[in-house]
From TrEMBL:
The keyword Transmembrane helix applies. The keyword Transmembrane applies. This is Uncharacterized protein. Keywords: Membrane, Transmembrane, Transmembrane helix. It comes from the Bacteria. The chain crosses the membrane at residues 5-22, 28-49.
Length: 382
């Protein structure tokens, strides 16, 4: 692009030279005239390029969708005209890695602050960061550019999710999922709100889908999974499942990862020991780590960096089923996407892979299906 601009300027310069020569102007006068213009352009560029800074501001507007209003303000003490500032900025969702990149240009500013108001739409909830990626300063003819001058600004904003309260009837449902009525109540979440749904006791039959949710520290916290202490606990993270919908896939996986991390952190804060298991992407073997204190929490990063995201059905459980029989765990927490859409012949008959899918499902199994995040949380008491 810059080479094209230079070529256009050179052609324009050449045509003007021909015009002056045809009108009997002396070449020295022509060259002097254009040299002076070029020198002025360079001087204006040098003296004005360092006199800018960019600031940002984010706010959320919950209308029809998750709409984010932002402001990008360019401040200048420049006393000269004829310059251009190009700002590249991006909005990043740190939970889902959703990135929206934009570019804006400011022209001919003089002793003024110019504010650009814009509106972006983030598809997912999460922690959003507005970041000014780069600032480029150009002269009037676009012959010269300087990058990275000025204050690189960034700002964070937390977008809270909708809460969904699910109820299943009849209360002791173990039959066909298609014959089950599902009641969904939607509420708009606000910062600091805690959604306290029905609680359960370990060993209760399936009565209601219930879950306590908070956005504390910008992550989903499923407190029910950490309130009941057990001697040996294993938490499995299943990110492998078959789907052709990339949006559904991203939403499910990131919701699972957030739940996985938050559950572990909550357990450790409650002085519980938890063993985490995952399928390694590099070795295609099971990996197991025990976390017993805050000092061991860095093992979560090891897991998330090595985890496999292949499109296949129930790989984690397939690899772990033999391992689990060798270790006497008192509690297994299995985090997985919606298993009703896949083929799970590898699962043992006593393991409830999904509500209504297995007539031999244990009565002391709590199954939570979060429709909004398309994630299932299964708490199996062996």
């Amino acid at each position: 692009m810059r080479k094209n601009r230079i070529l256009v300027v050179l052609i324009w310069f050449f045509l003007l030279v021909l015009f002056f020569l045809q009108n009997s102007y002396k070449p020295i006068i022509v060259l002097s005239f254009f040299s002076i213009i070029l020198i002025i352009d360079i001087l204006l560029f040098i003296f004005s390029a360092k006199k800018y800074e960019v600031s940002t501001h984010l706010k959320s507007e919950f209308l029809d969708n998750k709409k984010i209003s932002g402001q990008l303000t360019l401040k200048t003490t420049n006393r000269f005209l004829f310059n251009q500032v190009i700002v590249n900025y991006m909005l990043v969702n740190q939970l889902t890695n959703e990135t929206i990149k934009k570019q804006v240009s400011f022209f001919n500013l003089k002793n003024n602050d110019e504010t650009l108001n814009f509106q972006l739409e983030s598809e997912y909830s999460g922690k959003l960061r507005l970041e000014v990626e780069s600032i480029r300063f150009s002269d009037f003819f676009h012959l010269f550019e300087i990058s990275g001058i000025g204050e690189i600004s960034e700002e964070e904003l937390v977008i809270y999710p909708d809460s969904y309260h699910f109820e299943i009837t009849p209360p002791n449902f173990l039959g066909d999922a298609n014959q089950t009525s599902l009641v969904i109540n939607q509420n708009r979440a606000k910062q600091g709100d805690m959604f306290d749904f029905k609680t359960y006791e370990v060993g209760d039959p399936v009565k209601n889908i219930h879950w306590k949710m908070s956005m504390k520290e910008q992550e989903l916290i499923v407190r029910e999974l950490s309130e009941e202490a057990s001697h040996k606990q294993l938490i499995l993270l299943e990110t492998n499942y078959l789907t052709t919908d990339s949006k559904v896939s991203n939403r499910s996986i990131h919701a699972l990862v957030a739940t996985f991390v938050s559950t572990i952190e909550t357990m450790v804060k409650n002085n519980q020991t938890i063993t985490i298991g995952w399928l390694s992407q590099t070795s295609q073997t099971i990996q197991v780590e025990t976390i017993s204190s805050k000092e061991n929490l860095q093992l979560i990063e090891k897991c998330l960096a090595d985890i496999s995201y292949q499109q296949a059905d129930g790989l984690v459980w397939h690899y772990f089923k033999d391992y689990i029989t060798q270790v006497n765990y008192s509690r297994i927490i299995y985090l997985h996407p919606d298993l009703t859409r896949g083929n799970f012949n590898e699962f043992p008959q006593t393991f409830p892979i999904a509500i209504g899918e297995n007539s031999n499902a244990l009565p002391n199994t709590t199954h939570i299906h979060a429709e909004h995040y398309e994630a299932d949380i299964v708490n199996l008491i062996i």
